[in-house]
Amino acid sequence: MTVTHDLSILSLISQASVLVQLVMALLASLSLVSWYWIFRKAFQIRQARAQTDEFERDFWSGGDLNTLYESAGRHQSEGMERIFEAGYREFTKLRGKGHDHGATLDGARRAMRATYQREIDDLEAHLAFLASVGSVSPYIGLLGTVWGIMNSFRGLSSVGAATLAQVAPGIAEALVATAIGLFAAIPAVVAYNRFAHDIDRLGIRFESFMEEFSNILQRNLR
């Protein structure tokens, strides 16, 4: 009589040992959370890029700085606009108090640098989680695989002659853990690399703007 085994994914998961099932559940949870942050970060970075493009068009259109500053204060500014707002606020405050030109310009630069760091920190938030999922998930899956294969061979110790039909289901159950680990890791790694690149590009644009804006403020002090 031939014994048949159901090798569907759901069946393999339900028949796996408790530890392997816990590993699969952990990996599935990590995958769901990482996908949540992938979508959130993709939207946040796309929005930051669009707002930066819009502000650069407004800033370099040749309008009055006071008008641009008042416009920024009428809504929730972000990114480059917030950097401009912080720098120009500090510049006008120090110049109104009669500080010398060097101190006024240094104060504006410090305000812009502090705001720049906060904006970059906000964009980079939760990227470390994606990096951790990408690096750790395959090893967690491998743990489940090794444990499942050990259980499979331990069960064969009481069998006189092992056949492929007896070994295959246990190994297949174990390999599902590795597959889920890779399913969690690959999107997280790809998203992390992409987001890190996009944030670096935005950071370069922010830094270039701070230098150019500092030169404009310096000319206004003359």
Automatic annotation (TrEMBL):
Keywords: Cell cycle, Cell division, Cell inner membrane, Cell membrane, Membrane, Transmembrane, Transmembrane helix. GO terms for biological process: bacteriocin transport; cell division; protein import. It is a multi-pass membrane protein. The keyword Transmembrane applies. Residues 77-206 form the MotA/TolQ/ExbB proton channel domain. Its main location: membrane. GO terms for cellular component: plasma membrane. InterPro entries: ExbB/TolQ_transport, MotA_ExbB_proton_chnl, Tol-Pal_TolQ. The keyword Cell division applies. The chain crosses the membrane at residues 12-39, 127-150, 170-192. It is found in: Cell inner membrane; Cell membrane. Pfam families: MotA_ExbB. NCBIfam families: tolQ (TIGR02796). Belongs to the ExbB/TolQ family. Part of the Tol-Pal system, which plays a role in outer membrane invagination during cell division and is important for maintaining outer membrane integrity. The Tol-Pal system is composed of five core proteins: the inner membrane proteins TolA, TolQ and TolR, the periplasmic protein TolB and the outer membrane protein Pal. They form a network linking the inner and outer membranes and the peptidoglycan layer. This is Tol-Pal system protein TolQ. It comes from Thauera aminoaromatica S2. The lineage of its organism: Bacteria, Pseudomonadati, Pseudomonadota, Betaproteobacteria, Rhodocyclales.
